[in-house]
Design brief:
This protein is an all-beta fold and 160 residues long. The protein is 2% helix and 48% strand. It has one domain: Jelly Rolls. A hairpin with a 6-residue loop joins strand 4 and strand 5.
Length: 160
C-alpha cells in the first residue's frame, strides 16, 4: 500500500484597519473575515474537505497596504485570533510584543502552531480579530494585511 508523504500549505489573508483615532497604550480591536484565494475546504459534495487533517499555522506576517509606507512600529504589540464567523471558538494563533519603533512596513509574527484548525478551515468564513496597542496617535487609518500560512496533511485512507 502506498502512503502519501505530500504536505500542502496555503495562505489565508485579510485586511484589518488600525484606527487613526486609537488611543496610545490602550487595547483596540480590528475584525474582518479571511479566506484562502486557492482553497475551499467547506463540506459540500464537490469539495475534498474530508481529505485533509492536521491543519495548523506555520507562518504569520503583517504588511502595510494603505498607506504602503505605514510603519508597523507605530504598534507596540499585536495579537491575532481566529474563530468561526460568529466569533465562537476563538483561539490565539499569532502575536508579537515589543515591536520595534522602526519596524518598517512588514513584520513576522510569533505563531502558536500547537492548535489544530481542521474544523475551522471547513467553515464558510473564518473571522480574524487583531488586538493591538498603538504607540502614538496617527492622523489617518492604516490598512494592514494579515497573511497566515496554514499547512495540512492528507488524511490517511480508511483501512476498513
Amino acid at each position: 500500500m502506498y502512503q502519501s508523504i505530500v504536505k500542502s500549505s496555503f495562505p489565508y489573508t485579510t485586511t484589518l484597519t488600525v484606527s487613526g483615532t486609537a488611543q496610545p497604550g490602550s487595547e483596540h480591536s480590528a475584525i474582518n473575515m479571511a479566506n484562502s484565494f486557492d482553497q475551499n475546504f467547506t463540506f459540500t459534495p464537490d469539495r475534498n474537505a474530508n481529505r485533509i487533517t492536521l491543519v495548523r499555522v506555520i507562518s504569520a506576517k503583517l504588511t502595510s497596504v494603505d498607506p504602503t509606507f505605514y510603519n508597523i512600529g507605530n504598534l507596540s504589540e499585536v495579537k491575532i485570533y481566529l474563530s468561526k464567523e460568529d466569533g465562537s471558538e476563538e483561539m490565539l494563533i499569532a502575536q508579537r510584543g515589543n515591536i520595534g519603533e522602526n519596524a518598517g512596513n512588514t513584520i513576522p509574527l510569533d505563531i502558536d502552531n500547537s492548535k489544530f484548525l481542521d474544523d475551522l478551515v471547513r467553515e464558510k468564513s473564518i473571522r480574524v480579530r487583531m488586538l493591538y496597542k498603538t504607540r502614538q496617535t496617527i492622523n489617518h487609518d492604516a490598512n494592514i494585511q494579515v497573511v497566515l500560512g496554514l499547512s495540512a496533511y492528507p488524511r490517511p485512507a480508511d483501512t476498513n
